[in-house]
Amino acid sequence: MDHAPLQVLIDRETLHQRVAQLAGQVAADYPDSPPLMVGVLNGAVHFMMELLACLPEAFAAGVEYDFVGVSSYSGGESQGQVRLTKDVGADLGGREVLIVDGIVDTGLTVDFLLARFRDRNPRSLKVCALLDKPARRRHPVPVHYRGFAIEDVFVVGYGMDYDQRYRALNYIGVLGQPI
Ligand code: IMP
Ligand code: MG
User: Fold this and answer.
1) Is residue 172 a part of any domain in this protein?
2) 30 with 96: CB under 8 angstroms?
3) What span, in angstroms and rounded, lies between the C-alpha atoms of 159 and 120?
4) Residue 175 pLDDT
5) Which of 59, 69, 116, 68 lies closest to 88, judged by CA?
6) Which ligand is nearest the CA of 69, by number?
7) Would you tell me how many other CB atoms lie within 10 Å of the CB of residue 140?
8) Which residue of 42, 63, 102, 121 has the smallest Cβ count within 10 Å?
9) pLDDT for res 71
10) Based on the structure, what is the number of domains in the chain?
11) What pairs with residue 74 in β-bridges?
């Protein structure tokens, strides 16, 4: 099947090395109580699985994970509205919660999730994002663990999509003009 040309922005090995570093930081920061990691569907799936796989075994054994579904985009442009399409199953009360997202763009999605989750009285609530586009931020949100800051370009792969395609690529690329 034809697809538009892709320029590699972050290759497989670079992703792996950075994710391994983040896993080390997460393990070091929650020495006594491994967090409940909440991945944001669908974009965080690749990142989350690699992050989990890179955790030290003793730490990983105590980690729980779940996913939330949100919808805020159709195609490439933000609609400015976020809707929860799947909630977490666990009670967040008193838990150390770590939101894991693929990319923080305007910040709308993470802002929405932080507000929703804060209401449930977690013991702590932090954000881990593979990619961050600070130039696009409209809603200031904390990003406690950040893989890469990138320019204002539309990226695909490693969970990131354009109209639901390209997610399954195992690197981050920039879409060229369709041919
Ligand atoms: P935000 O709510 O504006 O921060 O946008 C977050 C969501 O927009 C992400 O979880 C992605 O689903 C999507 N998004 C933002 N930028 C990109 C991109 O460059 N490529 C693919 N999806 C993106
Ligand atoms: Mg998308």
Assistant:
1) no
2) yes
3) 28
4) 86
5) 68
6) 1
7) 7
8) 121
9) 86
10) 1
11) 77
What CATH number does the domain containing 112 carry? 3.40.50.2020
Count the neighbouring beta carbons within 10 Å of the beta carbon of residue 104.
Answer: 26
Tokens of 166: 């390209």
First to last CA, the chain: 13
pLDDT given at position 75? 47
Cβ atoms 109, 92 nearer than 8 A: no
CB atoms within 10 A of CB 90: 14
Q: Alpha-carbon distance 177 to 179, whole Å?
A: 6
CB atoms within 10 A of CB 18: 16
Q: Is the CB of 103 under 6 A from ligand 1?
A: yes
In 3D space, the residue among 55, 26, 29, 51 whose CA is nearest the CA of residue 40 turns out to be 51
Domain with 146, as residue range(s), is: 12-152
Does any ligand 1 atom lie closer than 6 A to the CB of residue 124?
no
Ligand 2 mean position, distance from CA 114 (Å): 19
